[in-house]
Design a protein that fits this description.
By secondary structure, this protein is of the alpha/beta class. It has nine helices and twelve strands. Bound molecules: nicotinamide-adenine-dinucleotide.
Length: 307
């Protein structure tokens, strides 16, 4: 197809100002404009965070997120609309966020922040604080996020194991397990970190059985998608002390409802689905869009094509 007008849908505003991306792409040989819902039909393609039914009349939709579980793949297929995503750019950002969670738990930094709110001078119990070397983190999903997490944690002295379907070795991981050995992979780890996409196969992958299999002193980290976890089972494991704590960036319902028990737990760190945030986000996404506009012009296959 011919690309004449590329829209930057206003929904990207949740992650960066739409105009920043439009400016960044100004050198492309197509018209780039920030658009609202009423201007979708004036475009051939859009860059977006959210899905709209009207996108099914376009030729190409690019998701600024790696996770595309909110888009109806079958409808895209039926209508012949190309869907591309932004995987490949979140290794360092999410890796650093996860390293931050682990350091907070190990060095008790979350306690200090909570105490500071109350102007309270209170040191940790003598046996609460620890260091990361010698501990093991099991990373479930060895794609961009998983590899970025492995690289960052390895630099902190953590032994990193991974779970992937093929079981083949991955650079940066000390040991790899196949999916059918998930419970074995997580049973001895001090940290379990989820980095798989949400699919029919991974929905509620982390349920009561998985939390039971984990050590009582282990910390659980979810930076993938909320529904990969059975959230009531996680809450139950935390309330019954069969897990030490959790850092959670993504939830079954977002924003996390005010009455969720997770908000009030001392050993839970909550971040509002922003593990991959960086002020460079529009550039990182823009580079993928630019690459694909060029590929389209050259008659080459799209990079990061999902549908
Ligand atoms: P990616 O495609 O690079 O990696 C995903 C990996 O998971 C791939 O290696 C894939 O083979 C593997 N996988 C898929 N299904 C699996 C299964 N059933 N069992 C085991 N492994 C499986 O994607 P990515 O960029 O690493 O992102 C992964 C997911 O993380 C996204 O789909 C998105 O939902 C989420 N994400 C969240 C944030 C955030 O801000 N919290 C940011 C980026 C991505």
């Amino acid at each position: 197809f011919e690309l004449e007008r590329l829209g930057v849908h206003e929904s990207v505003e949740a992650v960066f100002p739409p105009a920043e991306l439009a400016d960044y792409l100004i050198d492309l040989p197509v018209e780039v404009a920030v658009i609202g819902d009423d201007e979708i039909s004036s475009c051939d393609a859009v860059v977006t965070l959210e899905h709209r039914e009207a996108f099914l009349d376009l030729n190409w939709v690019h998701s600024i997120q790696a996770g595309v579980d909110r888009f109806p793949f079958d409808a895209f297929e039926d209508e012949g609309v190309v869907l591309t995503n932004s995987t490949g750019i979140h290794d360092r950002t999410v890796g650093e966020t996860v390293a931050g969670y682990l350091l907070m738990f190990a060095r008790r930094l979350h306690d200090h922040v909570a105490n500071q709110q109350e102007r309270r001078w209170e040191r940790p119990e003598w046996d609460d604080a620890f260091t990361l070397p010698g501990s093991t983190a099991c990373v479930v999903g060895t794609g961009t996020l998983g590899r970025g997490v492995a690289k960052t944690l390895s630099a902190l002295g953590v032994r990193v194991t991974g779970v992937r379907r093929s079981g083949d070795p991955v650079p940066g991981f000390d040991e790899i397990y196949t999916n059918d050995r998930l419970l074995e992979a997580i049973e001895d780890a001090e940290f379990v970190i989820v980095t798989v996409p949400l699919t029919e196969e991974t929905r509620h992958l982390f349920d009561a059985e998985a939390f039971d299999a984990m050590r009582d002193d282990a910390y659980f980290v979810n930076v993938s998608r909320g529904s990969v976890v059975d959230e009531p089972a996680l809450i139950d494991a935390l309330e019954t002390d069969t897990l030490a704590g959790a850092a959670v960036d993504v939830f079954e319902e977002e924003p996390l409802p005010e009455d969720s028990p997770l908000w009030g737990m001392d050993e839970v760190i909550i971040s509002p689905h922003c593990a991959a945030y960086t002020r460079d986000y529009f550039r990182d996404t823009g580079d993928i869009v630019r690459e694909n506009v060029n590929r389209l012009a050259d008659g080459e296959a799209f990079h990061n094509r999902v549908v």
